[in-house]
Design a protein that fits this description.
AttH-like fold; ten-stranded antiparallel beta sheet; 2 helices; Carotenoid 1,2-hydratase; AttH-like_dom_sf; AttH_dom
Amino acid sequence: MNPKRESGWDRRRSAFLFVLLAVVLCFPRPSGTRQPDAESYRSVTGSCGLEFPSDHGAHPDFRTEWWYYTGNLFSDRNEPFGFQLTFFRHRFVPPAEDVNRPENASRWRARHLFFAHAALTDGAAGRFLYDERTYRGVLGLAGAEWDGETLRIHLNDWSAVIEGNRHRLSAASEDFALDLELFAEKPPALHGDRGVSLKGSTPERASCYYSLTWLRAEGSIDCRGRRIPVSGTAWMDHEFSSAALEPGLVGWDWFSLQFNDRTELMIYLLRKADGRFHPASSGSFVDVYGNVRHLERDHIRVDVLSTWKSPRSGAVYPIRRRLRIPELSMDLELNPRLSDQELETTESTGVTYWEGSVTVTGISRGAPVSGTGYMELTGYAEPLDAPL
């Protein structure tokens, strides 16, 4: 089902900011000036040197950054819900050029744009709802502020606040609202080589990437005209980079899975135009103690069990999957909570993608397991022309 959009001033403001983004990113500069490129921004080289809690915060010298929350919740009637709340930061004034910009030119002068996506999968009612926001990072409209103890990421009244192991999420749209507290019960899982996650054929095609793979969740959602107390588990990804997606890649398939034996699995598959996966694709297995085992592309086998075609975008998504990792004696089947969990983010990032709640059954390390998770499928509606 298509979500209701903002109306009145909010609709006009979102449209204005979306046009502003297109102008800033695409309008040619005067003759003799250089278009900003990846070399104008800080690159991931060698080591990310991640330290916590400070690296939960923003990394403004990198071009692109996101804080990505997903989770599976249940009411006291055992009604299943999935949720997504994502905050994106995009820097469009390179640090190398920023030094020549006078600080007192205008209070409206922005270096960063912020976007946010929120979604709710109502499994019992068979509904998928989502909304989006866009704001400039000025005048308190949006930002990611760290004071040494607390991180506050916000776009107007949508926010994520991180303080110690506690995360507070809040987002309200016309059709639904999220009001959740999450508590990290495992340390950050660093993906790739100590957080350096290779995303292409050369070292500079990389991001700094970690996850909080087991967040205990509680709180409430507003849906179907009532406030519903919920509890469950959630996952948080934090990733930043300045590299563009490598030529020849059209998108990625991403999985975050939480099992009933309190282990977790992340898989990130970079997809080529012919459907094959790039050798830089990888994953991480997290054991009950939080220890991380890196998985190379050759360790991962993925099959498509069935697809779903969007009646809006025409994209065909592989929404039922079989996932095998022989080294972990793992053989899993992933099934979507709903077939239609597609987002068309025309008023923010401009990307159409499938992101939704899944259930998992199968075998891990030779024993039966079950669980829940999230799956993200990008580049199926059209090739993804975006940073990592």
